């Protein structure tokens, strides 16, 4: 059974360029580490400081292995340290 994961990002309105690089990094790291990146989406209406990332993974077990690979990946580590988060 495929699991779809949603990640909500809060964007600093004055740090949009930094967020664009952050999103590009995930665009490389997520598929490389074993998940299927669906994309990054901003709401059509409402907050201009919220964005969602969406990816699919085959199972909870695959998700655990993916998260371990992601924290070992250079771009994954860079993004996790940038966000103050130890995982995606």
Summarize the structure in short.
Residues 6-84 form the NIPSNAP domain. With 88 residues, this protein is of the alpha+beta class.
Present the secondary structure layout.
Blueprint lengths: L2 E8 L5 H17 L3 E6 L8 E8 L2 H13 L1 H10 L5
Antiparallel strand pairs: 1-3, 2-3
Helix pairs in contact: 1-3
Protein name: NIPSNAP domain-containing protein
Order of helices and strands: EHEEHH
**Main β-sheet, in a few words?**
3 strands, antiparallel
Q: Helix share of residues? A: 40-55%
Q: In the CATH scheme, what's the topology name?
A: Alpha-Beta Plaits
Average pLDDT, to the nearest integer?
A: 88
Q: Which class do the helix and strand fractions yield?
A: alpha+beta
Report how far the terminal alpha carbons are from each other: 21 Å
Task: Give the CATH class.
Answer: Alpha Beta
Low-confidence stretches: none
Radius of gyration: 13 Å
Task: Quickly count the domains.
Answer: 1
Number of strands: 3
Widest β-sheet, arrangement of strands: 1-3-2
Organism: Aminobacter aganoensis
Protein name: NIPSNAP domain-containing protein
Domain NIPSNAP: 6-84
